[in-house]
Amino acid sequence: MALLHTEAILSPEGTSTNGQARLAPRRYTTLDGVRLGLLGNSKLNADNVLVAVGELLKERYALRSVFVRSKPYFGTPAPEPVVQEMLEHSDVVIAGVGD
């Protein structure tokens, strides 16, 4: 079947009129000596993935500690007590999702 309107074919490369975004300033230049927080969203495999990430990071960096928590429900923000625990026990937090 022949294409009737070839001008409707779009390039997958895309273009953007927006400028490039800059990353936020980083407080740490390395994870050596950092207290790492891992926050799962309670979905299937989220905790498993985060624990594996934590293990890899412990192999590569001299982490001071690893603190793991999960949200009770993936569809809502972390409860304030969980947020406060993460702030108290972590310098850097990785939030993970799973399915």
Task: Describe the secondary-structure layout.
Layout: E1 35-40, H1 46-60, E2 65-70, H2 80-89, E3 92-96
Rounded mean pLDDT score: 87
Biggest β-sheet description: 3 strands, parallel
Succession of helices and strands: EHEHE
Radius of gyration computed on alpha carbons: 20 Å
The computed structural class is alpha/beta
Please tell me what the overall shape is.
Answer: elongated
Q: Uncertain segments of ≥5 residues (pLDDT<50)? A: none
- DSSP summary, beta strand count: 3
Q: Helix share of residues?
A: 25-40%
Question: How far apart are the first and last residues' alpha carbons, in Å?
Answer: 39 Å
Q: Approximately how much beta-strand content do the residues carry? A: 15-25%
Q: In what order do the strands lie side by side in the largest sheet?
A: 2-1-3
Number of helices: 2
Write a short abstract of this structure:
The protein has helices at about 45-60, 80-90, and strands at about 35-40, 65-70, 90-95. With about 100 residues, the protein is an alpha/beta fold.
